[in-house]
Amino acid sequence: MKSFPVYYVDAFTDQPFMGNPCAVLPMADGLTTDQMQLIARETNLNETSFVFPSTQADFRLRFFSPKKEIPFAGHPTIATAFLLAEKGYIKCSAKRTTIQFEFQIGVYPVEIAAESGQPIQVVMTLPAPFFGETIPSDEVAACFNLLPSDLRDDVPVQVVSTGAPYLIVPLRTLDAMLRAESKYIQVCSLLQKVGVSTAFLFCLESFSSNADAFARMFDPDGVGEDPFCGAGSGSMAAFVYHYHLSEKPFLRLEQGHLVGRPGQAEVEIRGDPDNILSIGLKGSAAIVLDGQFWL
After folding, report:
1. Which of 42, 94, 106, 140 sits 20 to 30 Å CA-CA off 34?
2. Pairing mode, if any, of strands 165-170 and 157-161?
3. Residue 180: Cβ-neighbour burial (10 angstroms; 0-12, 13-18, 19+)
């Protein structure tokens, strides 16, 4: 039998058991796709990250949910970079160290901020947004047990992708966010109509005075409600800036409060509202477990 080290890392928080958990296998070379899927099913976390050598970048990453492989995601990228730096796979002798990760969607840089050689924050780059199909608000509200008046009427409900597509649903108030409930059949039908698997609800109110927005991500055929969705946060921030809901290219986002795992991230929109070049997503992480898988 062969052993593979595994770590559980909570992303978008510096507190254990908060934010979004991810299993990271930093030495996955030798595992088959079927074995990775079995391991992801065994961890039963939203995502499990597998790290491989790369001919194009410093590392190649593959992400799996318990059900399928995922080409790109935010929180496992943050968790993996933090873990690799914390455990010495990446040397952080400077205050800022930039590495390259190879994903299925391409190669993108990740910057690690460190103090005394220890990581404190990770900044990942999300690609330029793609703005896709729009849906009338009145078709969406009932899917989440809301009234049409709970949704903003100055911007559309729209599919947006910064590496992975989400249906972005803008709500007016934090109260509406708290009342939102995902109706399985209706939400599945809605998402199937626009060809995505997840809905990302947000409002420009928050629990904390130091945050600009609060969000919830619903994945009816996956995790249900995700504690903190990084790639969805990038799509939402691009949406906010593109439609001039905020004129500043910087947002602090909160998620996870309603599932008992609050987290926070910072998002920087690079470019102009009509020509967004990329998104910088910043978050911290906490390692909560280490062990071995035996195969």
Report:
1. 106
2. antiparallel
3. buried
DSSP H or E segment with residue 290: strand 285-294
**3-state SS assignment for residue 235:** helix
Contact (Cβ atoms closer than 8 angstroms) between residue 18 and residue 256:
yes
Sign, CA dihedral 233-228-35-222, equals negative
Cα 69 to Cα 41, 48, 76, 108, 126, distances in angstroms = 11, 9, 13, 19, 19
Q: Name the residue with tokens 């698997």.
A: 197
CA distance 38 to 292: 14
Q: Which segments of 220-274 are extended strands (E)?
A: 224-226, 250-255, 263-272
Q: How far apart are CA 264 and CA 57, in angstroms?
A: 28
CA 129 from centroid of its chain's CA atoms? 15
Q: How many residues does the chain have?
A: 295
The pTM of this model reads 0.95
Average pLDDT over residues 49-77: 96
Q: Using a pLDDT cut of 90, give the percent of the chain over it.
A: 97
Helix (H) or strand (E) segment spanning residue 203: strand 199-203
| Strand, coil or helix: 18 | coil
Among 227, 235, 213, 223, smallest CA distance to 167 is for 235
Q: What is the pLDDT of residue 189?
A: 96
pLDDT for the residue 127: 95
Q: Which amino acid is at 8?
A: Y
Contact 215, 233 (CB under 8 A): yes
Start-end of H helices in 24-157: 33-43, 75-86, 137-140
